[in-house]
Amino acid sequence: MPExxxxxxxxxxxxxxxxxxxxxxxxxNNNKLRFxxxxxxxxxxxxxxxxxxxxxxxxxxxxxxxxLTILAHLGMTGKFFILNKKTKYKTSFYYSLKKNDFKxxxxxxxxxxxxxLIYNDVRKFGFIxxxxxxxxxECNHLKFLGPEPLTxxxxxxxxxxxxxxxxxxxxxxxxxxxxxAGLGNIYCNEILFLSKINPIRIAKKVNKEEINxxxxxxxxILKKSIFQGGSSxxxxxxTEGQNGxxxxxxxxxxxxxxxxxxxxxxxIIKKLxxxxxxxxxxxxxxx
Length: 287
Description:
Blueprint: H1 4-18, E1 22-28, H2 39-42, E2 48-56, E3 59-64, E4 68-73, E5 78-83, E6 88-92, E7 105-111, E8 116-121, E9 127-132, H3 156-163, H4 170-175, H5 185-194, H6 208-227, E10 270-274, E11 277-281
Antiparallel strand pairs: 1-2, 1-7, 2-3, 3-4, 4-9, 5-6, 5-8, 7-8, 10-11
């Protein structure tokens, strides 16, 4: 599943291509996604201009004229294609393009200047919904999200207060979208490695110095990944068809039985499961 950096890369790519284009027609080929596409509501956005494209956590927010907003989540295999008369731009996390992939095109937005925006989803865990602008932040998808990790709201004081008396594993807490929005398994593993914290450590036992590291490395890792185009796990690419490169920088994620990258550390990266999710760590570097 794409995490914050990958969704941010998609957002930037979509905005560069779609901003200020006008929706001329919407065609729903298959409305059976995680939540059924409301054919009637999407048929009513004809001639509405795309004002902006934003991101909140792992969600894409496409703002239209007439105070309407399209909310999209890529799920596990969702991908957007942008087509014009000459070029097919691609954006997805699971990106392997099969011969019959068009069968999984769920909704097509026909835009002016010869552009099309297509949402394709093989496993159908993603969704696309339409909201009034004033209701978008109160919908159940966004209402309970924690602060964005790249904002000043995610700071040492906030983390310290949230961790107080929490008896859950620190890895689980970082994965909790109510605590901080947008982090997923890949980046939580990497943050905890750089912070030198074992993923099964009880949250309330993380000290102030370690909290400082969590905040610092969360911001650093996410910024670096966005800059490098995200992580190409299962062939993630942006709309230009370019692979993300951050996976080449992984310290622990998916490196089970390989040597720790810390200088002079002889240990081998181990893998365990926490709340059903794979966790990778160095038993010597992370205490």
